[in-house]
Every structure is written in C-alpha cells, then in structure tokens.
Amino acid sequence: MSFRNAWHREDSTVVCIACGEAVSRDDAREYDKHGDRWDRDEKEFEYFCKPCDRARSHSPRQGLEDRLVEAGAGTVDRATFLRRYCALSRTGDAPPENRRG
Fold first, then answer.
1. Where are the alpha helices (DSSP H) in the chain?
2. For the CA atoms of the chain, what is the radius of gyration?
3. What is the Cα–Cα distance from 18 to 29, expressed in whole angstroms?
4. 3-state DSSP call for residue 81?
5. Is 61 helix (H, G, I), strand (E, B) or coil?
6. What is the rounded distance in angstroms from the CA atom of residue 28 to the CA atom of residue 49?
C-alpha cells in the first residue's frame, strides 16, 4: 500500500462543489482555493467530480479568491456581486462602494 493510499480512505465519499453530486473520493479531484494543494497542513480540501474538473478552467488564478471575497461572493445578491467583480476586474481596485477615502 502506498503512502497516498494509506493517507486517503478509499471508501470515503465527497461532494462535488460544482454539481453537488456525491462521488467516491477515488472519482474526484482535490481543489484548494488557496492555490497551493501541496501544502496540506491544517487544510480541508474541496472536491470536483472528474467531469466537472475537466470542464473547469485550469488557468492560473492568482488573486482570484481575494477578488471574489472582495466582490462579496456568496454574501451579496447576484447583481451587486457582478457589478463589484466587473469593477475589480477592470481596475484592479476595490469597487466604488467599498473604497475608503
């Protein structure tokens, strides 16, 4: 048994964060929203099922998670989030309603 197999419980089930389907851990891919999947200390990973993992963009996402948080992902209504996210994407700054000064 390899170290990886000893570390993972092969009978575990995880939920895909894209489609919500429960799949075997062996049929899933780890997702680390911090972008450093090799630094495992005190991390809880999220998972994609293999079809959703293949469908998502694998482009570098440096700064993406910070931008999503700054725009209010999951905490504001869709229209507000999209307006803030677009403003951040164009300027790299905080959206007008979040600027201080």
1. 3-7, 50-55, 64-71, 78-91
2. 17
3. 12
4. helix
5. coil
6. 4
pLDDT in tens, 16-74: 989 999 999 999 998 877 666 667 677 778 899 999 999 987 777 778 888 989 999 98
Say if residues 18 and 56 touch (Cβ distance below 8 Å).
yes
Backbone angles phi and psi of 22, in degrees to 5:
-85, 125
- The C-alpha atoms of residue 50 and residue 26 are separated, in whole angstroms, by 10
The model's pTM: 0.49
Which amino acid is located at 20 in the chain? G
- Tokens 């780890």 belong to 30
Identify whether the C-beta of residue 53 lies closer than 8 Å to the C-beta of residue 32: no
Only one residue has tokens 């000893």, namely 6
